[in-house]
Structure formats: structure tokens, C-alpha cells
Write a structure and sequence with these properties.
Blueprint lengths: L10 H10 L24 E7 L4 H4 L6 H10 L1 E7 L5 H10 L21 H7 L4 E5 L11 E2 L4 E2 L16 E3 L13 E5 L11 H19 L4 E7 L9 E8 L6 E3 L3 E2 H11 L21
């Protein structure tokens, strides 16, 4: 039913009414979305790559990591106060994926799918979105083997196997990483093997692997509403778990940075909110989003 003319208010009057009530013009819907407070983007695809056991200062500014520094950091945004949760590796991966270490305190090979706790994968699937992991050296899709020496694979770096609410077939081999990036899941994790993640091999080895295997995706992401997040599980024990975390892609400020202190729970919360999820796993529920790097 139309509103009688004598009861209609002009837009300027609505703005005045909003101001009187302590509301901004944006709150009463008078400003376009672009003029309102900046929010997280809504990327089509996010790929997270996790590297191993190096402190922030061993990566950022290092001549051994030219791709990470000269392309991803310079062309994206650097989180200069990013931290792991604990030591050793395995509980950090669980924290990043589920907002909790799930009681795991070491790198021992646990019984697969021992937990039904909420996690990034289960939340995405529950919301009708897609999830996947790409695991270098994994013998076959969905395999729960603990290690494979010939391919330098280690399940301790693949936390999705801990959860009964994440289908095993969403754990792909890295050879299944698509060349048509439009077919990637909404969110996916990439975990290199024990050499290429810098655990057993050099910083330059890992840097070159990221460039050779994810460089084309990173370039594509810049113009296809997508993101690449590069982070580490933990430091080398020398720097209070201070690690490198870099975000690259469309909607990221070029050369941006944030000195706000963040950890794996903040990264998880941000991944959830970038995906439009309304649920948050574990400690991500009380963590803040990563801000100050979005254009």
C-alpha cells in the first residue's frame, strides 16, 4: 500500500531524524555501501598455504625468500605481529583449522577422525559451501596413512584427518590441485611435503616451491576476486612464536601492513567471515577479524 503524500518524509528529513536518534546516515540507508565503513571482502576462492618452523625474521626481509618478499609481501599485505599458538607443529595446525588444539600436545599420529568438534571444513560444508585440502605426498585421495618416507609426507601437518565431520575424500593429493582455478573450493588449504614446507629443507627451497606451484594462482587471484594466504605453523623456537603471515590477491592493499597482534585463531575467524559463515569454531568465536589490509 502506498504511503499518503502528507505522511512522506524527504530524504533530508530522514537523515535529520537519524542524526537526532544518534544514527549515522549510513545506518538509515542513505549512503551507498561503498561510502559506509569498510568490511571484509567476499572472495570467490581462498587458498591457504602453510609452511614450517621459521621465525618472522627468517622470512620477511630475507634474501632467501625473494618470491614471498618481492611478490607476495610487496604486492599484498604483511601481518608484522603474527604468532603461532604453541609448540610443536601438530597442535598449531589443529588450532588454525578448528580454533582448538583438541587436546593434542605433540606430533604423535593419532587415530583418524577422533573428534567431532566444529572446524572450518565442517562449517563450510554445513553452509552448503565447498572445502578441500591439497596435500603434497599424500599417497592417494583420502588416505589416512601417518607418513610416507618416499614422498616426505606427514599427516601431522594435515589436521582435517582429525575430524569425523570432514569427509576423507575432501583431502586431495597435491597433483589434484586444479589448473582451472574456477573449480577450486571456496576455501582450500595447501600443505607442501616436509622438504618444500621448509621443515627439512631450506627457506629458498620452500620459496621456490610456492612460486612454482602457487604463483600462477596468486597472479590469477589478483583479477578474479580471490586470495592467497601464506602463513607458518610455528617459529623455530627463537622468537616467542613470531611467524610470517602474508595476504595477497584482489581487495588487498598493495604494500599494506598491520602491526596488530594476531594468531591462528584470528586467521581462522577471518577465513570464516570471508566465507560469510555465521558460526565460528572454538576460540575463533571470540577472536577478532584481521583488519586494516583490505582496500
Amino acid at each position: 500500500m502506498s504511503v499518503p503524500a502528507r505522511l512522506r518524509r524527504p530524504r533530508w528529513a530522514l537523515a535529520a531524524l537519524g542524526a537526532t536518534a544518534g544514527l549515522t546516515a549510513a545506518a538509515v540507508g542513505l549512503l551507498p555501501a561503498s561510502a559506509q565503513a569498510a568490511a571484509l571482502p567476499t572472495p570467490d576462492h581462498v587458498v591457504v598455504v602453510v609452511l614450517e618452523n621459521h621465525s618472522y625474521s627468517q622470512i620477511i626481509g630475507s634474501s632467501s625468500a625473494p618470491y614471498i618478499n618481492n611478490t607476495l609481501k610487496s604486492g599484498g599485505a604483511n601481518l608484522s605481529s603474527s604468532y603461532g599458538i604453541t609448540h610443536p607443529s601438530q597442535p598449531n595446525y589443529l588450532a588454525l583449522f578448528s580454533g582448538s588444539t583438541q587436546g593434542i600436545t605433540d606430533d604423535s599420529c593419532y587415530i583418524p577422525q577422533f573428534s567431532s568438534a566444529a572446524n572450518l571444513g565442517s562449517e563450510l560444508i554445513g553452509a552448503g559451501l565447498t572445502w578441500g585440502s591439497y596435500n603434497e605426498g599424500l599417497p592417494s585421495q583420502g588416505s589416512t596413512v601417518c607418513t610416507k618416507s618416499s614422498t616426505k609426507y606427514a599427516r601431522k601437518h594435515n589436521p582435517w584427518f582429525a575430524f569425523s565431520n570432514v569427509p576423507l575424500n575432501t583431502a586431495y593429493t597435491f597433483t589434484q590441485f586444479p589448473t582451472d582455478y574456477t573449480t577450486l573450493p571456496k576455501v582450500s588449504f595447501v600443505v607442501p611435503n616436509l622438504c618444500n614446507d621448509m621443515h627439512d629443507c631450506s627457506v629458498s627451497t620452500g620459496d621456490t616451491w610456492v612460486q612454482n606451484n602457487l604463483g600462477a594462482y596468486a597472479t590469477w587471484a589478483k583479477t578474479h576476486n580471490s586470495l592467497l594466504v601464506l602463513t607458518f605453523d610455528e617459529d623455530n623456537g627463537s622468537s616467542s612464536n613470531h611467524i610470517a603471515t602474508v595476504v595477497y590477491g584482489q581487495h588487498v592493499i598493495v604494500g599494506g601492513s598491520s602491526s596488530t597482534t594476531y594468531n591462528h585463531y584470528n586467521v581462522l575467524r577471518t577465513l570464516e567471515d570471508l566465507s560469510g559463515l555465521t558460526t565460528h569454531a572454538g576460540n575463533a568465536a571470540t577472536a577478532s577479524d584481521i583488519t586494516g589490509i583490505w582496500n
